[in-house]
């Protein structure tokens, strides 16, 4: 088209002649170059799907690929709430033990709680834990510096359910509300080292110093290594306020089950200052106490403060026994004649050849915790402490027994003597009431290496319907006995000489109660060995040379130094007896006394026959006991229905500690707890350093139906300890106490972080606390 058109144009450009006839079309030209593509057209409507094709043949499997890198671990999931028909924590644990014995635990359920060491509270699935109150927490809504605050290193706990005394004659045990009540809590000591003019405080003492600066009591640099003596004195005065005991009301949230302090209730603090006062009953004191604010002498028999309060007991008439243990740390040791290896130390007031004359003045103890104060008013005599103290809870701290009303107020049980008391318990019937028409019988345990178990029997008898004042009036007159574990191997403290094995229920040891008095007619256990087979205890105690120890002129002297008096007459030494409990509803069907022997890895004072190792021979002749794990023993009185009249008892081991990391490995038993049905529970102190995994709280299965060979028993559980709750860090598990419905156990978490790292419970520093462990049924 384009070539033919161009020729026609050229032909038309001639002269202007007349137009010629049109020429013929030229030959067609060659095609031009292709033009550019035009715009795409719009998509057409989609066509119909074609028929599906046939499946192809399966291909061969490829080679397996390499494993990829592991991903990060997720948080462990919580166990699902267990299926249970139990209505209480105690019943739930026992139900699980029953299933364990029958080999019927649900697959994957963790029971008992596994061994581990964490900085948390760990419990079984279906159980919650709450921090109820911690050291330095206010017990009221007052912000005043001297308002009552919760004390340090809590130990023994007693629970009084709201309304427990609504029925006349009720015992506080297992009566009253399970969701609201009053707690008594012991406060034993402050950990770490207090400040000196040339050193800063450490541990809990530093925590206390920081608190005192925060509230304006101290104004110095509390972390500096230089302190004025005036600031040191201030710190010691406030340290005295951290020990003793607390009385507070706790309530449970009905929607969540959580427990907390009712700060609107009238809380009371009892401490080591002269603001707390008690009467010493049944024991003469060697000098008066002082008001530590004025320096004035206190009335005769009245002492200032309580201290070193470890475990204790709940009386059947509604008061609390708080046991003063290591009081030698505060004003010095009255029985200073014994080394840590139980070697006799001459020149300390107990030498043979004269009557004993121990040092009682606290003014000589300028290195002891409270003796370091420069203000003489702050020091008290040593023989004022080391007693079982009966606190009338809720009464003002200064209300000593008889101050205003007979039978009301606080008193120290001087008739039981001085010792490093751990705990006390009473012989009671199945309703936890005193035995009618029987004397009141009190048992106590002296927690030291070689310490003993003691029994006190009142002269008068209890009769039903007595008032509290009448009951307390009976206590001042009676007889004191020491438990002599005859036949126990002195080299071990937990096996029998005759068998070389631990005593068992089938082959028990036979012990006897030895009256400790200068008028006692009992034959001294070491009489024959010392060449006078008929020497009585009374004669031996008065003799100024018997067994290489000075004489005891009176029963006051005997009670003032129980450990030394017991050594003098040859009472068998024990492996640190700690808690002690009378069990009126024992699974065996017979009332028993349970005692924890925590451990003993040092030498002893006496040989097998009760003769004192001479000071020059002690290092080479005294055996070193090798009990690092401890045990629990049971004692049965010859007549459990009349324990005050029983002169003998059977004893045997029911549980022995173990070293290891298994589910049933535990060591160093300490506090005991009996449930409403006679079940036995215990906490440990020292397991963390022995095994190591956290100290914990256990249920001890003593149900005879769970022995090997009994019908339906696949996994024998008799004698096994089942871990229920584990403590944080290196904290001790102390003070367990059930509510009356057994749905909650209150426990004291003592000294977390004392020797190793801990930030429990709040992340700002380790604080001893009371926790509530509560069962939450679906």
Automatic annotation (TrEMBL):
Region listing for Disordered, in residue ranges: 11-86
Biased composition (Low complexity): 21-31, 60-83
Source domain of life: Bacteria
PANTHER family (alphabetical): DUF839 DOMAIN-CONTAINING PROTEIN, SLR8030 PROTEIN
Protein name stated in the entry: Alkaline phosphatase
Organism: Sorangium cellulosum
Species classification: Bacteria, Pseudomonadati, Myxococcota, Polyangia, Polyangiales
